[in-house]
């Protein structure tokens, strides 16, 4: 089958493209509640409220209500929100690429993390390329976590519970604020923001989970909303830890940048899962941290230029001719490969029938 490749080297090829980047603007959103039911509103959005320190991130691990990530959700929530938005407003959303934020985070991070293999599926429908994660690859490539691995993954969700409220603070009783350490941790619930953005001439619609908001999300308040990304990280205690954290900042930055989330709150913990401190980072300033350190680990501008070039290549590699509508293409990168490749498959489209019917009506 025909394969086309986007070479990763030489890196200079993608430097100084000076890609104009648009400010992401949210145009719709949706929520999953804690039983994973879909709601076309912001009901699962949480409010940031500083946690009490120090805190034990281990507490409640055995009661964790964990989302079953063996289920392949494709682009279902995103397509449903898009369809509902279009039905309500009468506007058909025009984009070159529609995807989950996680797919673009992988691409933006690739030049600085060449060991991070991935597979995605792409399909073109009405001049838009829809991209999803290739779920079977994700399942087969991730090592099963041992108890410590599961516990460490829990720490991230526990921090979200400790650092947020389900209502604004003035609507929340003191006892609820102080009782957050006892709350059952559940990661089925999600609030997802959907934005229009762009990389140079490539128009992109991205959906992604937003952990919390700083103040309030009023329907009439101008975007970007004061959203907050929450992260946990080991408190650096050595030069090696500093380097690891600086690398981690690349992914954190890319993730937040893509949705236009302006602020990241990092909960620093020790090796035993005690939350020690919380530090605020402004997304727009994070690339300067990597620049100033002089370590040369990553570069924000390069990340944007690289992603722009890759998306432009993808648009050309998945041709907009009638016969290719609904064809599924595999986008693949493996450690050691000289580039990202796209290959035609004979799989069936992963778009929902409801979305296809709506667009064809
Ligand atoms: P941390 O990132 O604080 O460790 P996100 O930060 O993207 O909102 O993700 C929330 C949490 O999900 C993470 O918190 C982590 O606990 C968990 N998580 C995300 N990706 C994971 C992965 N690949 N493996 C295990 N846990 C993961
Ligand atoms: Mg999150
Ligand atoms: Mg987070």
UniProtKB/TrEMBL annotation:
Keywords: Hydrolase, Metal-binding, Nuclease, Nucleotide-binding, Nucleus, RNA-binding. It catalyses: a 5'-end (N(7)-methyl 5'-triphosphoguanosine)-ribonucleoside-ribonucleotide in mRNA + H2O = a (N(7)-methyl 5'-triphosphoguanosine)-nucleoside + a 5'-end phospho-ribonucleoside in mRNA + H(+); a 5'-end triphospho-ribonucleoside in mRNA + H2O = a 5'-end phospho-ribonucleoside in mRNA + diphosphate + H(+); a 5'-end NAD(+)-phospho-ribonucleoside in mRNA + H2O = a 5'-end phospho-ribonucleoside in mRNA + NAD(+) + H(+). GO terms for molecular function: metal ion binding; mRNA 5'-diphosphatase activity; nuclease activity; nucleotide binding; RNA binding. It is found in: Nucleus. Its cofactor is a divalent metal cation. GO terms for biological process: NAD-cap decapping; nuclear-transcribed mRNA catabolic process. Pfam families: RAI1. InterPro entries: RAI1, RAI1-like_fam. GO terms for cellular component: cytosol; nucleus. Residues 22-355 form the RAI1-like domain. Its main location: nucleus. Its EC number is 3.6.1.-. Belongs to the DXO/Dom3Z family. Decapping enzyme for NAD-capped RNAs: specifically hydrolyzes the nicotinamide adenine dinucleotide (NAD) cap from a subset of RNAs by removing the entire NAD moiety from the 5'-end of an NAD-capped RNA. The NAD-cap is present at the 5'-end of some RNAs and snoRNAs. In contrast to the canonical 5'-end N7 methylguanosine (m7G) cap, the NAD cap promotes mRNA decay. Also acts as a non-canonical decapping enzyme that removes the entire cap structure of m7G capped or incompletely capped RNAs. This is Decapping nuclease. It comes from Ascodesmis nigricans.
């Amino acid at each position: 089958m025909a394969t086309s490749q986007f070479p990763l080297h030489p890196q200079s090829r993608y430097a100084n493209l000076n890609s104009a980047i648009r400010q992401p603007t949210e145009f719709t959103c949706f929520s999953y509640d804690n039983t994973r039911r879909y709601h076309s509103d912001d009901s699962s959005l949480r409010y940031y409220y500083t946690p009490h320190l120090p805190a034990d991130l281990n507490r409640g691990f055995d009661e964790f209500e964990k989302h079953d990530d063996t289920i392949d959700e494709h682009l279902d929530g995103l397509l449903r929100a898009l369809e509902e938005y279009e039905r309500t407003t009468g506007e058909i959303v025009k984009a070159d690429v529609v995807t989950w934020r996680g797919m673009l985070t992988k691409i933006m991070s690739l030049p600085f993390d060449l060991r991070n293999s991935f597979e995605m599926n792409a399909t073109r429908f009405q001049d838009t390329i829809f991209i999803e994660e290739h779920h079977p690859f994700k399942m087969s490539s991730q090592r099963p976590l041992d108890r410590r691995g599961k516990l460490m993954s829990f720490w991230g969700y526990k921090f979200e519970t400790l650092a947020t409220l389900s209502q604004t603070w003035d609507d929340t009783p003191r006892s609820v604020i102080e009782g957050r350490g006892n709350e059952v941790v559940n990661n089925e619930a999600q609030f997802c923001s959907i934005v229009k953005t762009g990389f140079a001439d490539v128009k992109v619609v991205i959906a992604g989970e937003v952990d919390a908001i700083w103040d309030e999300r009023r329907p009439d308040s101008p975007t970007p909303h004061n959203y907050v990304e929450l992260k946990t990280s080991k408190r650096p205690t050595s030069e090696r830890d500093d380097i690891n954290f600086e690398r981690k900042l690349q992914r954190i930055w890319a993730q937040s940048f893509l949705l236009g989330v302006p602020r990241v709150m990092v909960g620093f913990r020790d090796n035993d899962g005690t939350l020690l401190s919380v530090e605020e980072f402004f997304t727009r300033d994070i690339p300067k941290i990597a620049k100033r350190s002089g370590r040369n680990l990553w570069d924000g501008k390069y990340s944007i230029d690289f992603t722009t070039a890759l998306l432009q290549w993808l648009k050309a590699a998945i041709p907009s001719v009638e016969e290719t509508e609904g064809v599924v293409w595999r986008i693949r990168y493996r450690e050691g490969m000289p580039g990202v490749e796209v290959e035609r498959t004979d799989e069936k489209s992963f778009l929902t029938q409801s979305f296809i019917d709506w667009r064809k009506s």
